[in-house]
Amino acid sequence: MIFGRKNRKPITITDKKVVDWKYAVCGYCSTGCSIEVGLNADGKPVASRGKGNAPVNQGKLCIKGIFEHELSGTAGRGVEPLMRNKIYDSFQPASWDQALDRTAAEFKRIQEKYGRDSIAVVSTGQLLTEEFYTLGKLVRGVIGTNNYDGNTTLCMASAVSGYKRSFGADGPPGCYDDFESTHCLMAFGSNLPEQHPIIYWRLKEALEKRKFPLIVVDPRVTMFAQFADIHLPITPGTDLVLLNALAHVILAEGLQDESYIEAHCNGFEELKATVAKYDPVTASRICGIDADMIKNVARIYAKAPSAMSIWTMGINQSTHGTDGVCGINNLNLITGNIGIPGGTSLSITGQCNAMGTREWSSCSGLPGYRMLEKQEHRDEVAKFWGVDADFFPAKRGLQQTDIFPAIESGEIKALWIVATNPLTSMPNQPRIKKALEKLEFMVVQDGYKDCETVNFAHVYLPGALWGEKEGVQTNTERRVNLVRKFVEPPGQAKPDHWVFSELAKRFERGQAMTFPETTSEIFDEMKMLSKGAKRNLDISGMSHDLIEAQRGIQWPMREGEATGNPRLYSDGIFPTPNGKANLLAMDYIEDNEVPNESYPFWLNSGRVVEHFHTRTKTGKIGNLNKFSPTPYMEMNPDSAREQGVKHQSYVRLVSKRGDAVVMVQLTQRVPHNMVFIPMHYHDCVNRLSLGLLDPYSRQPAFKQCAVRIEQIDQKEAGRLNVERRAF
Amino acid sequence: MWKVRDDEPGYAFLKESTAPAVNYYEAPIDLIARTGGALPAGREMFINEEPGVGNNPNRNKQHAFHFTADNCIGCHACEAACSEKNDNPAHISFRSVGYVEGGTYPDFKRMNISMACNHCDDPVCLKGCPTRAYTKHVEYGAVLQDPETCFGCGYCTWVCPYNAPQLDPIKGQVSKCNMCVDRLEVNLKPACVSACLGNALNFGVVDDLPENREQAKVSIPGFPDPEITHPNIRFQQIKNMPDEVTRTDGMAVKYHKGDDGQYRPVVDQKKGIDKKWSLSKLSSRENPLVIFTLVSQTSIGAFFLAFWGAQFGVESLQALRDSIMYIPLMAATVGLAGIGMLMSATHLGKPWRFYRGFNNLRHSPVCREGLGMLLYMVFAGIHLLAMLPSNQLFIQLIGDWGRFEIIAAVSGYLALIAAVVGLYYMYRCYRIPARPFWNHWQTASSFFGTAITLGSVLVGLVGVPTFMVIGGDFAQLFTIALAGIVLGSALEGLGLWRHAAAMDTANNEGSVSHYIQCTVFGKSYVLRNALLLLNVCAAGVLLTLAPTALTISAALLLCLLAGVTAIIGRALFYVLVIPTTMPGAFFWKNKDFEEHAREIGLANMPQVGVVAHAH
């Protein structure tokens, strides 16, 4: 002691008395961080830490992961099934038998009366892969509705469609290790530090070892944009114009990789003819990036020995999201940047297991990236499951965003929602509410009974959450990783795969099929189905224990291989009919709701680091929620002055759909004609959003619509703000 | 001992030190040397009472954070890792990230600042703490605080320029960053540093540059003057920031780049320029201190006048001393001092631990203030008792117990000495560099001025009616009381005038307080100033007039006005101070949002991280 006192003062530092650490892959975003959850002597989760030797996160965790052990104690969990006759009645507790019997009976009744497809199932990216597989088996093989989709349509559908159009199949071809070898990274509509902080850290580590140019395309000056060597503040919704112009410059200046194009690409001439129309000057007038800058960026990218692109919702959530993805793929194909270290088109996915649902849920087809449209795939899966192949439809049905209009039109009479919250997450909330009121029967299966969509349900089934069941998830770089069970679900809540198997037993077809009880048995079934010549999505070399031992394994890992593979298409062979990738010629069509005199502001939306999706989890953990406990909007101080709007006051935003009350945060982060609102809050941004759909992916354009700003009485606004925050 | 994992990542380990012998401020980095060899190396720290010495080879060197401001992404991982490790509830955080920003879209820059305790070379928290809850250790130079010793006065939260000590209104005690000394003992960096995702936060022996870093500045925009405490934090900030950067929180402060490249706080007119009353905002959690200071000063002023004036041979005061009302007057002064002590105790998080308030006489003005006031009360009480047997009513009712003049005189003088010491240190308590609005001689002129004004008022209020009833020269006492009001109010007015002039040009948080004073509280401020002027003038005019029924009534009204003036003035003194804290964020560490959340009831949800109602 230098000063203070002569006698010793006790030094007390919290000791959480952890006796056991359990392995799990994080249950929030798609980065796929390995976590160790510390249990005390009572078996209570009390601590979280990043797994030190995990390849993805190397001991690091973001704020959400750091407090993930607190999930098991969060408020609002469902502890018993609930039922009611009408949605205006109050819920009554029910046994699992009562709830499942009623669900099966209602499904049967409605299917008999209105036809097989009158039931829709909307799933999620939150379950374990084994559960997705089981749900797919139940929906495709037992219930037999074709209107089955996941909420991944709201986040990753354009990436999926784009990959399929360019490469012939879904699956991000690159990996995080590519940061270590790339010579240029271009990020489109991706705010890594906020959305995927651990991926950002991997990039930062690479940049500190070896500097390479970082280019960020974003209409907002995010921290990522600010740290970029070049920031392109693009006009919302015009990415395709920029991408075509970049290709234009590359081809005009002969910077393309001729031999790669020759050997591995279809459609070069068509592409050339189309991008010829997008000279930098023409493009600059649409996308707002000056011509010289477009040329500069195109040259940097094309001349780099290897270059990679990453993107997130700025591309996907757009009326031409799929075209944007294909434009990025074009850029990388013509510069020979696919399947090489540091050269890739890497879509940064959203949910922890968005990839798992894409791979195995049968939402868009059949398990293991198989397609309903292919007879051989239908036959193969039908035989494996013991179902009549004719039971499968020959064409994929409606996607999530088309299911709600089909409820409006009366085609769909019953809806089963699994671990998603469309009442908060779907664009144009007023329309969704109206549609849900029309349903004859709705069942919501979720870990939280205070999830807003439950308000419209006839039956509520309480699901187990992260760490309350065991199974795998796949991350952005195709790494299959494991969550161990370390705590019991509360009350009578059950793992989702148990619910699916139990429901299957209530159908005749289900009784004829086998539904394994444990997820590791389900995983074995998936492994068998993943085998096959030329199949990339091959997990037959993996097992739960091996996955934990290697802290996650990247598919493909074929039987007999020691580990997985970091990249796809390194051999230049693509899963298309002729084995070549498709260059796509795409014209830009202006179809957004753009600001006008009556609605003068762009409404942009996005995430904040402390929250996940609709806050059913993070809104209840104080050490996360406190950083943004209420909805707010970023607004430019100059336009605020014109509108008479003050910092930290409330305003009412109005669009052609509805209104929302938000608190104003003035910042020059956003341009004069734009406001930005985090997407997480109920009764907020999606009361305003339009969500025009991408023609291929049916993903909504959340980030582009027009609003105006109205004054609101501050006391009234404060009251509304509190009323609208159940958590 | 903290357990190092088998797969502990490399970045979590402290690097070997190549630090120089002395730090930026020329103090030895070797802490044993800093004690002049008074303490040995290799001592056990007994963290959680566990014996053993860690294997850190640099454990007797001063350690410090290194923050690369250019890199911070504001991801909250450091704050989260800290709160996770220390199991802190949502409303407490040892480390916080705020930001400053500037420029115009798209030429916009935000700089996030992550800040915890800087384990300063000159820990003002340690010096200020009356309970001696703080210790600066020769191990790592960590400044550690023991929450179990703390009685929750919050003085450390006043003096710290970085908002490091966290006063928990629920627990009623302070806690703070412990430098993760348990991790340091096994060569691991603190939890916040190991968690950093922007590669911004680092840690090691002070002035030993981390790998890949080239700068170790002692300040960045938004950081308070490091000369106050010599904090153990160094910065790298190479990227240019706009010449002016603003804060998103409610504080009306922004920072402007000077010719020397340093950023200094200036007023940001966030609250507009309209003059308001904001009378309800005058009431704050510091209300007990408003009462404490006012009643203590009144008591001291009255005691001085009544006792010393009589000792000095002022006729009317001698007459007052010999009158029946001297005892009630003394009882009032002792009682007021007692109420003051009680108020200062209710201000504590743990009032029943008030006795710990005298543990740091060596350093803490709070201790000296407390002891001075306590001794004043005791001696004034003895004086009261010693004077009691001389009281005619006492003699009539109880009998003649004799006279105790020597005891009365000695205790009276001792009370005077204690009062001067107490009042002086009451003033010293507010000479806080981290609170520029208080850190001015005006605080003294206000405290002494109030003592003179209100002391005179009290003596006048007791003495003049006494003489009117029992007969005596009330004219002299009337004059003395009025002269006291003139003198006290003029002294206070003079201080306020110079203070306003100084704050207006100070270019620090004091100017910001003054701006708030002139806008949010503008009308209340003008009212107080006008009242003060009125008091001086009216008392001055009354001085020239003979005491008649009319002038005495006017004087009574004047006494009331003097009281009102003092209350408004003192409330302003407490609500206006703006500390040199770190910039906050939009919600977290934003006082305006906290206030709003309490107002609308959002704070009733604990996950909002705002304590609904302070105790």
- The strands making up the biggest β-sheet of chain A line up spatially as 5-4-16-15-14-6-7
State the total count of DSSP E strands of chain B: 12
Architecture of the largest domain in chain B, CATH level 2?
Up-down Bundle
What percent of residues of chain B are in strands? 5-15%
Keywords (chain A): 4Fe-4S, Iron, Iron-sulfur, Metal-binding, Molybdenum, Nitrate assimilation, Oxidoreductase
Pfam family, one (chain A): Molybdop_Fe4S4
GO molecular function, one term (chain A): oxidoreductase activity
Family (chain A): Belongs to the prokaryotic molybdopterin-containing oxidoreductase family. NasA/NapA/NarB subfamily.
Describe the structure.
Chain A: It comes from Zhongshania marina. Chain A: GO terms for molecular function: 4 iron, 4 sulfur cluster binding; metal ion binding; molybdopterin cofactor binding; oxidoreductase activity. The complex is a heterodimer of chains A (727) and B (615). With 727 residues, chain A is of the alpha/beta class. Chain A has four domains: 18-73, N-terminal domain of TfIIb (Single Sheet); 82-153 and 354-371 and 396-473 and 487-519, Rossmann fold, CATH 3.40.50.740; 157-347, Dimethylsulfoxide Reductase, domain 2; 601-723, Beta Barrel (Barwin-like endoglucanases), CATH 2.40.40. In chain A, helix 9 (239-252) runs parallel beside helix 15 (321-334). Helix content of chain B is 44%, strand content 10%. Chain B is built from 18 helices and twelve strands. Chain B has helices at 31-34, 77-86, 124-128, 155-159, 181-184, 191-195, 287-311, 315-322, 326-346, 365-387, 392-397, 405-428, 442-470, 474-504, 509-518, 522-543, 549-576, 591-600; strands at 63-68, 96-104, 107-115, 134-136, 143-145, 166-168, 173-175, 201-205, 233-236, 244-247, 253-257, 263-267. Chain B is globular, with a radius of gyration of 28 Å. Classes of the chains: A alpha/beta (727), B alpha+beta (615). At the A-B interface, helix 7, helix 8, helix 25 and helix 27 of A face helix 2, strand 2, strand 3, strand 4 and helix 18 of B.
